[in-house]
TrEMBL record:
It comes from Actinomadura physcomitrii. The lineage of its organism: Bacteria, Bacillati, Actinomycetota, Actinomycetes, Streptosporangiales. This is Zinc-binding dehydrogenase. GO terms for molecular function: oxidoreductase activity. It holds the Pfam family ADH_N. Signal peptide: none annotated. Residues 10-319 form the Enoyl reductase (ER) domain.
Length: 322
């Protein structure tokens, strides 16, 4: 089969199309004929062997990538074979999911014509959603879901500010917060206003014209996909007793946050087929939509990574696998 591999760390150009054997599904796994795979930030972090991630962001030892390495944790495709013990899926089923995340060296390997995945990480793709739009959902959609539902347990009727609202995680967080009855304030650059209002954002802060901390005072919850050393400015946007969900780590001045009763609830997204099925139901009835920034052929994975590195992503970048 054809697969994109990096034989060592570096710029997007390290991603090359190789011919390698089709993998075998192990116990509990299915073999997927991949029809679309999606880019996520860990793909380009790992491609550079995490060189840009500071030591303190690793809980224990630094992650190291074993090259040659096939990127890709998000896949949508068709079941081509099932391994021992798989009863939930059969050959021919259309499936999608976040595969073996957060593993790196034994991760999803979705930039390929075939990949294996634990059946427990997959859900059936809704027939009304094509593979490109389905592949766009798993990591970003599960991240938004796991922050809003598992960690923050967002009650109805709250005000939610989403920073980085146009990106992969952000645009799903806007929609999932709205579905839970929230008033949503989207923070993004000017080019994304139409996109985010169409997805249901009630208010829009163009951070290139107005700093969010100058415009917002009353959020119950901040979902911050940007983070970084000046992330504490978002404390001004949250009510006392509110919650900040740092999707990317940041400095939220923990002492000031504690004094004001503001909880910081972060964490790492993980594969979950049951939650994928919940997202599938929302996609099927049209209440959740994947925004597509751009689509590249599998062979052009390096170009897709170049697009990712220019930033200002609106939705997701997807690889179509012919
Ligand atoms: N905790 C977890 O498990 C988890 C899971 C997934 C992702 N992440 C992390 O979360 C971050 C976001 O992931 P993603 O997939 O959503 O990335 P993404 O698709 O690249 O989106 C990032 C978005 O942020 C916007 N942005 C950039 N600078 C900004 C600023 N200063 N203020 C407001 N918006 C800004 C960009 O567009 P504009 O600048 O044009 O508005 C872009 O739309 C990444 O760092 C990723 O590693 C963590």
């Amino acid at each position: 089969m054809k697969a994109i591999r990096a034989h060592g760390p570096g710029d997007p150009g390290v991603l090359v199309l190789d011919e390698i054997p089709v993998p075998e599904p192990g116990p509990g796994d299915v073999l997927i004929r991949v029809r679309a795979a999606c880019l996520n930030p860990p793909d380009w972090y790992a491609r550079r062997d995490f060189a840009m991630i500071p030591d303190h962001l690793f809980a224990g030892e630094r992650l190291r990538v074993s090259f040659p390495w096939i990127p890709g944790s998000d896949a949508s495709g068709v079941v081509a074979a099932v391994g021992p013990g798989v009863t939930d899926f059969s050959v021919g089923d259309e499936v999608f999911g976040l595969i073996r995340f957060p593993e790196v060296n034994n991760g999803g390997r979705a930039y390929a014509e075939y990949t294996t995945a634990p059946a427990a990480h997959l859900a059936r793709k809704p027939p009304s959603v094509d593979h490109v739009h389905a592949a766009a959902v798993p990591m970003a959609g599960l991240t938004a879901y796991q922050f809003l539902v598992d960690r923050i347990r967002l009650p109805a009727g709250r005000t939610v500010l989403v920073n980085g609202a146009a990106g992969g995680v952000g645009h799903f967080a806007v929609q999932l917060a709205r579905l839970r009855g929230a008033r949503v304030i989207a923070v993004a650059s000017s080019r994304h206003e139409g996109f985010l209002r169409d997805l249901g954002a009630d208010e829009y802060v163009d951070y290139t014209a107005t700093a969010a901390e100058d415009a917002v005072r009353d959020a119950d919850v901040v979902i911050d996909t940007v983070g970084g050393p000046d992330a504490h400015r978002f404390l001004k946007t949250v009510k006392d007793g509110g919650t900040i969900g740092p999707v990317f780590p940041g400095d939220y001045h923990p002492e000031e946050a504690a004094r004001r009763g503001i909880e910081i609830r972060g964490g790492q997204v993980h594969s979950d087929g049951g939650q994928m099925a919940e997202l599938a139901a929302l996609l099927a009835d049209g209440s959740l939509r994947a925004g597509i920034d751009s689509v590249y052929d599998l062979a052009d994975a390096a170009k897709a990574h170049e697009r990712a590195e220019t930033g200002h992503i609106q939705g997701k970048i997807v690889l179509s696998v012919p």
